[in-house]
């Protein structure tokens, strides 16, 4: 027997990477459910939850009550397809960045569960299908707005802004504001000042929502070379800009009361939730000035608080048309 031959029993490879790849590097056979999960992950379903939170209440307000159920379903399906297509193309374009960040290194393209080519085809297919779906089953205006949203997110944000400017999430966040315009136009066929104010709420909400997350993952963004504001600017500057955006967000939410002819449910919610989230942001800024960091600074408290704020505000918006005196 060759003395160099190792006769000890060998452990089989384990872990996600081993299960996904054969020794030759080709993808291993996987179940249908795992393949489906990978493609669903491409659409970023957790982000699309915001689509549900903002679009349906907007439709309720636009209709002054409960819109046609089929119209709600058709709009939500079309919106999901549009957002899913944009997110898939975003993952394709950002696959090099995602591979260097702990928060994103398990995304399907990085792990090899979905090939880059398949992701592009999937993203384009969803995007085209969303436009056709909305044009046929909702209206042309909603389809046009969906196409604009996709282009804003994929081209304007991902390809142009994200790697070039610290204000990337500010202007790139415009794409995330489009669902309220799509929901409004689905009911009315157009866009009103009330819809613009709803757009403004989400536009100004995006920075104080996302910058605390970027603060927590600053090292990730530094490694990936993405100039998020918390990476390239002082915490004090970031905190001041968060206060400014929050104030403008609250102003938009309050302006809807007279212009959108809302009732007391939304009015109370706008004042109460605005005051609460404003306090969270100001407290964060005070902690920054004190030189606190990490858990003592509490950026994720603001991040999660922003989601709670937007959810409560839009739930109140949905309830308001049904509770009038």
What are the SSEs and their pairings?
Layout: H1 16-20, H2 32-42, H3 45-63, H4 69-93, H5 95-98, H6 108-111, H7 116-137, H8 140-161, H9 168-172, H10 174-188, H11 193-216, H12 218-224, H13 229-232, H14 235-259, H15 264-289, H16 294-297, H17 299-319
Helix pairs in contact: 3-4, 3-10, 3-17, 4-7, 4-8, 4-10, 7-8, 8-10, 10-11, 11-14, 11-17, 14-15, 15-17
How would you describe this structure in keywords?
325 residues; Four Helix Bundle (Hemerythrin (Met), subunit A); cell membrane; single chain; transmembrane helix; mainly alpha; globular; disordered N terminus; UbiA_sf
Largest sheet: none
Oligomeric state as shown: single chain
Give the CATH topology of the largest domain: Tetracycline Repressor, domain 2
Helix content range:
over 70%
Count the strands?
Answer: 0
- What structural class do the secondary elements suggest? mainly alpha
Number of DSSP helices? 17
**End-to-end gap:** 93 Å
The overall number of domains is: 2
Gyration radius, to the nearest Å? Answer: 22 Å
Would you identify the regions where 5 or more consecutive residues have pLDDT less than 50?
A: 1-27
Strand content: under 5%
Average pLDDT metric: 89
* CATH top level label of the largest domain: Mainly Alpha
